[in-house]
């Protein structure tokens, strides 16, 4: 009996580190977690380049701080639009539409999405590509995959990010927003895999406006966008905007700004 108890004790002792490494609330266990997670990533087909990138990640304290500080989505619509500079986005967006008329015509012909919602997203996410973030993408996603708040969601994103490294779309030094979003319209890694598009052919580069806007249109099409129909609340294409961001106030702001830019 003593031998059985001892064996059970040892088995529990061996299991404890794995259980403890399942997620963490501080950076203390991050290095041990990523080493353990590498085996799972490899089992899901991640190759040497992706595994090397995972091994090189660091716990992103700034990402955790940003993840706990997303207060603007709790504002009312008017306050949210003021905080996000909606009037400026609309004014500049109309100019961007005129300056890039051929590009937006090409995108609408291919995906059925007009310029307005694309420009509204572009302006809201990165001020038309002027600020795409400086956080290391792989470290940001790995940190959130380790963090106990939403590990399952971000582990999917992490696998996608490592796949993008394996196929050359991202590198271990790629940078973007605090949650691992990349490019001029801020795509999470899984969405790059699903909807990333190159309007002019060749490789996908979401840091370039043409690919970023085409990919955004492809995303909206993939979420049910129907050419020629409206996208205000209650209209058929509003659901596609809801797919872009879960916050109701964000969705409403996109619809308002996009329709203003489109002249509707």
UniProtKB/TrEMBL annotation:
<protein>
    <submittedName>
        <fullName>Murein transglycosylase</fullName>
    </submittedName>
</protein>
<feature type="domain" description="Transglycosylase SLT">
    <location>
        <begin position="30"/>
        <end position="229"/>
    </location>
</feature>
<dbReference type="GO" id="GO:0009253">
    <property type="term" value="P:peptidoglycan catabolic process"/>
</dbReference>
<dbReference type="GO" id="GO:0008933">
    <property type="term" value="F:peptidoglycan lytic transglycosylase activity"/>
</dbReference>
<dbReference type="InterPro" id="IPR043426">
    <property type="entry name" value="MltB-like"/>
</dbReference>
<keyword id="KW-0732">Signal</keyword>
<dbReference type="Pfam" id="PF13406">
    <property type="entry name" value="SLT_2"/>
</dbReference>
<dbReference type="InterPro" id="IPR023346">
    <property type="entry name" value="Lysozyme-like_dom_sf"/>
</dbReference>
<feature type="signal peptide">
    <location>
        <begin position="1"/>
        <end position="20"/>
    </location>
</feature>
<dbReference type="InterPro" id="IPR031304">
    <property type="entry name" value="SLT_2"/>
</dbReference>
